[in-house]
Amino acid sequence: MKDLEDIRAVMDGIGVRARAAAAELAFAAPEAKAAALNAAADAILARSDEIVAANARDMAAAEDKGLSKAMLDRLLLTPDRIAAMAEGLRAVAA
Fold it and tell me: Shortest CA distance to 48 belongs to which of 72, 84, 91?
């Protein structure tokens, strides 16, 4: 139960920071928005190994819970999928 509480606390913190960032970006200049999106793309690529490792743990837990193959495929993050996310952020920035 402690792990679940820890996850909830982490997710709550992420949500609070995301809402604050969204509020700030809503009034930001287009150049600042593009810079933020490009920085996010850079961060995703820089931490790709960490993301893949964390996803492997999530995938194991999802398999243990009996998620369908289709759902598991949607949850799977590979280096190519992470690169595509970064590319998508850069496309929005452009």
Answer: 84
Q: Is the pLDDT of residue 6 over 90?
A: no
The span from the CA of 29 to the CA of 72, in Å, is 39
Report the interhelical angle of 48-64 vs 79-93 (nearest 10°). 120
Half-sphere exposure in the Cβ direction for 8 (13 Å, CA) = 5
Tokens of 55: 């996803």
Work out the average pLDDT over 64-92. Answer: 96
In angstroms, rounded to a whole number, what is the distance separating the alpha carbons of residues 72 and 59? 7
Confidence (pTM): 0.76
Element (H, E) at 52: helix 48-64
How many residues appear in the chain? 94
Average pLDDT, stretch 54-69? 94
Banded pLDDT at 1 (limits 50, 70, 90): low
